[in-house]
Design a protein that fits this description.
The complex is a heterotrimer of chains A (437), B (469) and C (127). Chain A folds into 3 domains: 9-48, no CATH class; 67-77 and 347-434, Aspartate Aminotransferase, domain 1 (Alpha-Beta Complex); 82-339, 3-Layer(aba) Sandwich (Aspartate Aminotransferase, domain 2). Chain A contains 13 helices and 17 strands. Chain A has helices at 9-19, 49-61, 82-87, 90-93, 105-122, 134-148, 163-176, 195-199, 224-230, 315-318, 331-369, 393-402, 426-434; strands spanning 67-68, 126-127, 154-158, 179-183, 185-186, 189-190, 204-210, 234-238, 257-261, 277-281, 294-298, 304-308, 373-375, 384-389, 405-406, 409-412, 415-419. In chain A, strand 16 and strand 17 form a beta hairpin. Chain B folds into 2 domains: 84-98 and 106-323, Aspartate Aminotransferase, domain 2 (3-Layer(aba) Sandwich), CATH 3.40.640.10; 330-451, Aspartate Aminotransferase, domain 1, CATH 3.90.1150. Classes of the chains: A alpha/beta (437), B alpha/beta (469), C alpha+beta (127).
Chain lengths: 437, 469, 127
């Protein structure tokens, strides 16, 4: 038999007897013949491990990982090597959702740590056990705001929010029946001018902004929370998790919900996923929050224990009354982020963020020095920035690629957005600069 | 855990001044984040040396139970073996190092993996096109319903907002429909556990023009094949609705029947169930959505890139490992294992619906109800014997549901061992019920106080500290 | 065995109204709290909110269940039982004493469509 099937002929015969059948085919006796599949699947023949490996190595050779100077929501941070080794432990990897708390304390314990770390990072009270990614977590936050509001059904979204996040929000909003209205941007930041007017209708459940925003700019959101709260709207802030080790937190800005992607916490870019979405909120909103939550309790032996809690909010109990259909978390990726934050700790996370900041500002300064680039927005930025290139952007990007560099994300015919992380050396930055004609 | 130190939270192991990282020195010059942009206080993250962190998480893992630890008959979850080659493939730097926005000419191999996986899924399901964007089963369900709603909208048929689900459906079905702005109508099951086609007919007669879709799991959550599916499909289609296949129970259909051939128009697949990618303690999974020809134009933007690509890599590696000759044995062997357990235990556990099951089946607790031993007690006692518990109290059709799914990977010896223990517990329920009712006894912790956790939620270390102060 | 109280009005979704003049005290019945088990949270509305007969105004949660509270009558909320915020278990201890909201009734005629104690008792037995 095949390596994943332990059934010997003798086993099969004994089992057939017990079940009262003569062949495997008899197990499907009730399936109408017209829908029985009797064909041969058009798939390759069984491959050995050697062949599977060779095939993927061959496919891999058609890819070209590049030295990454791009971000736009996904950042090439360094992964300390202890992480993948710890995560490959079967006890973590091959377990299910921790429903049986008695034999799942490993998972429940690290999720509790994850929640604790995310609240520290965001300056919020409460965190859930994680969500799919930053875009869907943000869409969930939008639905949460509408569910928490009494009759309000509109959410305002700043134009400086990542268009990819916006696209996902719009999908959810369309089907869920939520109205999305944009807050215009001026000079790369959210315009304050009409925000009060937009809120005045009293039909706004939430206001979503991004910090740092899509262009890497650190915006000044002073007073936004008050403006929202005066109109009973929730203030939602989307951030790149790692940046919050240094930046003023959503909590400090007065946010009610903080969401975003945790990929920046040492998770590989792996062509888009899996990552981990985070969602934090104020204590007041805990029962409105979607997703799993782990809480502390005691067992019947008087020991501290952790358990999935507040499950009455969730889909398997609320069914069609649930405000979200989420019934899992991104557990293993939450563990990834948790081990990352444990290793990097209070100082390391900050230092990595500061290095990223320094590298990005050095690259920016050097680009400006060439005389061929200009900053598009005159605003403070973190580790990402948009420049206008006085030349052929496509040709320049092609040249970068040919030399093994992912040289920025093209935002417009003449605009490139660069990002730098702690992983980029000065030598790599200088190599990029040398390629500018 | 015998070493008390490792019962601690990582925060409790922290000492100021320790660190577990190393970073290069700043060679870029003195760029400083301005104070005006900075947070007031540092995030109170732990400060630990590298070995402390490694030991902490290594020891935490010892408090977990995975498929690699032992038999995991968790119904509805398809806890099959997660081949190790998949992990190495997914971690290949030629794939793991790709930025999702990097130029297309540098990601051809990754594109090829997605394309081939979709092609394989089409072949295995009889559908026309797949999107890999959905991140999980529930996300796939939502995506599939969006496709259906968009299809009706495209025809100007906006009145279709009702989704029919059998009363045995997964809780996710109604929740996904609600998120999608659709409403649920339930159709009753017959006493044999399958959909009541007459009730369906009445429902369609009454609401036909409002029906957007019917969602079905086939085999259903009782593990029973809905043999009336050709009739059901005809009725729903005649009323103008589409058929949605919840792929949670696809595993027993490999090698036996394809959703496309059953008349389904849209489906999702849980790659972490049928296609062997690890459950990871609750995620990440992946929920690709497949559709009949003509519906692929309605795939919505539910995620920005290629879904959980590294999960898709694993699933494709699994399909290649199996090959066409083995993939068709997956369903039959899983089904054989389930029926074997059912037949071996139905004299001591209550089998409410007799007959052939597919990959799983449901007992309604112990046959002898006089002992007071509940399904919860049986589940907890299993933990003492080194087995994961089955799914309990689902489906909601029975009071004491105990749902068992063995998967094709389990050997007869493993299953016989499980059967023996289940029989032993049934015996203990008579001779020593208190031992069962107070189980588990041999696990790192005992039964937990759910009420305390929910009434007074403490969900962070900070709250824990404030609470004890 | 769940108790039923004489003199109150009952709904099929297991809420009661105790009427004093133009004022109604709305709570969940003993049958409902038994069915829910340990109540861990009560989602309370705000004072001055309007409630409508047949529409939900809050929710009761136990560890394993959640149930909307449907108002049996229409009116304006005069008071909410804030003690339930800290001690939701009061609903388990004595659901009759621990009403959830106090309402000024806008249409006493609505009471006619509710059950009396005897009818409700029979209703529960058949449930």
């Amino acid at each position: 038999m095949f390596k994943f099937f332990p059934h010997t002929d003798a086993d099969l015969q004994a089992m057939f007897r017990k079940v009262g059948i003569k062949s495997l085919d008899d197990l499907y006796a009730e399936v109408p013949e017209q829908i029985r599949y009797r064909g041969e699947y058009q798939l390759p023949e069984e491959m050995s491990e050697i062949e599977v490996r060779q095939l993927f190595e061959k496919l891999g050779a058609q890819n070209k990982p590049l030295t990454c100077f791009a971000g736009a929501g996904v950042y090439d941070h360094y992964t300390p090597c202890a992480i993948p080794q710890l995560l490959s432990r079967s006890e973590f990897l091959t377990s299910y959702t921790p429903y049986q708390a008695e034999i799942s304390q490993g998972t429940l314990h690290y999720i509790f740590e994850y929640q604790s770390m995310m609240t520290e990072l965001t300056g919020m009270d409460i965190s859930n056990a994680s969500m799919y990614d930053g875009t869907t977590a943000t869409a969930e936050a939008v639905m949460m705001a509408v569910a928490a509001g009494k009759k309000q059904n509109k959410v305002l979204v700043s134009e400086t929010v990542d268009p990819k996040t916006l696209a996902v929000i719009k999908t959810y909003a369309h089907f869920h029946g939520i109205e999305i209205e944009m807050i215009p941007a001026k000079d790369g930041v959210t315009s304050r001018q009409n925000i009060e007017a937009l809120l005045a209708g009293g039909d706004v459940a939430g206001v979503l902004v991004q910090q740092p925003n899509f262009y890497g700019i650190v915006e000044d959101y002073e007073g936004f929370a008050d403006i929202c709260h005066n109109q009973k709207a929730l203030f939602i802030m989307n951030s790149v998790a790692a940046d919050l080790a240094v930046l003023k937190t959503p909590g400090e800005w007065g946010a009610d919900i903080a969401v975003g992607d945790g990929q920046s916490l040492g998770i590989p870019m792996q062509w888009g996923g899996p990552y981990v979405g985070y969602m934090c909120c104020t204590e007041k909103l805990i029962r409105k929050m979607p997703g799993r939550i782990v809480g502390m309790t005691q067992d019947n032996r008087g020991q501290r224990a952790f358990v999935l809690t507040l499950q009455a909010r969730e889909q398997h109990i609320r069914r069609q009354k649930a405000t979200s259909n989420i019934c899992s978390n991104q557990s293993l990726m939450a563990l990834w982020a948790t081990v990352y934050m444990s290793l990097m700790g209070k100082q390391g996370l900050k230092e990595a963020a500061e290095l990223s900041y320094a590298g990005a500002h050095y690259l920016c300064d050097e680009l400006l020095k060439t005389g061929k680039f200009k900053l598009v927005y005159n605003q403070p930025f973190f580790n990402e920035f948009v420049v206008r290139y006085n030349g052929d952007v496509d040709a320049l990007q092609k040249r970068f690629t040919e030399n093994g560099i992912f040289g920025g994300v093209k935002l417009d015919v003449d605009q490139l957005m660069f990002a730098v992380t702690e992983k980029r050396t000065k030598e790599e930055v200088d190599n990029l600069l040398k390629l500018i004609p | 855990m015998n070493n008390r130190l490792y019962g601690n939270l990582i925060f409790e192991l922290s000492q100021e001044g320790r660190s577990g990282y190393s970073l290069p020195k700043n060679k870029f010059g003195s760029y400083q984040v301005p104070v005006s942009l900075r947070r007031k206080e540092d995030a109170a993250l732990p400060e630990c040396d590298e070995m402390t962190v490694v030991r902490h998480y290594t020891n935490l893992s010892a408090n977990n139970f995975g498929v690699d630890n032992g038999f995991y008959p968790l119904g509805s979850c398809t806890m099959k073996y997660n081949p190790k080659i998949n992990e190495e493939i997914a971690a290949l730097p030629q794939f793991a190092g790709l930025h999702p926005l990097q130029p297309a000419e540098t990601t051809k191999g990754a594109e090829e993996v997605c394309e081939q996986l979709c092609k394989s899924l089409c072949e295995l399901t009889g559908l026309y096109a797949f999107t890999l964007k959905p991140f999980a089963g529930a996300h796939g369900e939502l995506t599939g319903l969006m496709v259906i709603k968009k299809y009706h909208e495209s025809r100007g048929d906006e009145a279709r907002r009702l989704v029919i689900v059998p009363d045995s459906a997964h809780g996710t079905n109604p929740a996904s429909a609600a998120v999608c702005g659709l409403e649920i109508v339930e159709v009753k099951s017959l006493s044999d556990g399958t959909v009541d086609v007459d009730a369906l007919r009445d429902l369609l007669a009454q609401h036909g023009s409002e029906i957007a879709a019917m969602m079905m799991t086939n085999p259903n959550t009782l593990g029973l094949f809905e043999k009336q599916i050709p009739e059901i499909e005809k009725l729903v289609h005649a009323a103008g609705g589409l058929m949605y296949y919840d792929g949670a129970n696809l595993n027993p259909m490999l090698g036996a029947a394809r959703p496309g051939d059953m008349g389904f128009d849209v489906m999702h697949i849980n790659l972490h169930k049928t296609f062997s990618t690890p459950h990871g303690g609750g995620g990440p999974g992946a929920g690709p959505v497949g559709v009949r020809k003509g519906l692929e134009a309605f795939f919505p933007e539910v995620s920005p890139y290629h879904g959980n690509f590294a999960v898709a890599m694993r699933a494709y590696a699994y399909i290649l490992s199996l090959g066409r000759e083995n993939v068709k044995l997956v369903g039959p062997l899983a089904t054989l294992n389930a029926n074997y357990i059912k037949e071996s235990l139905k004299d001591v556990y209550e089998l409410p619906i007799d007959g052939l099951c597919k990959h799983e089946f449901v007992f309604d607790g112990l046959k002898d109800k006089s002992t007071g031993v509940t399904t919860m007690d049986v589940a907890k006692r299993l933990l003492d014997y080194g087995y994961h518990a089955p799914t309990i109290y689902f489906p909601l059709l029975f009071h004491e549901s105990l749902m068992i799914e063995p998967t094709e990977n389990e050997s007869k010896e493993t299953i016989d061992g499980f059967i023996a223990v289940m029989r032993k517990i049934a015996e203990e329920a008579k001779t020593n019920p208190d031992e069962v009712k107070s189980a588990p006894h041999l696990t790192p912790i005992g039964r937990v106080d759910d009420v305390l956790a929910a009434k007074h939620p403490i969900v962070t270390f900070k709250q824990m500290q404030n609470d004890t102060n | 065995m769940a108790t039923v109280k004489e003199g109150l009005y009952y709904s099929e979704s297991h809420e009661y109204v105790k009427v004093e003049g133009n004022i109604g005290y709305i709570g969940i019945t003993d049958y409902a709290q038994h069915a829910l088990g340990n109540v861990v949270y009560v989602d309370l509305p705000d004072v001055d909110d309007e409630v409508t007969a047949g529409e939900e105004f809050g929710a009761v949660e136990s560890v394993k269940a959640a149930s909307d509270i449907i108002s049996p009558v229409s009116g304006t909320i005069l008071e909410v039982n804030e003690a339930l915020d800290d001690e939701p278990e009061l609903l388990n201890k004595d659901p009759w004493e621990n009403w959830i909201i106090k309402v000024e009734l806008s249409d006493k005629g609505e009471l006619d469509s509710l059950m009396d104690a005897k009818a409700y008792e029979a209703f529960c037995e058949n449930a």
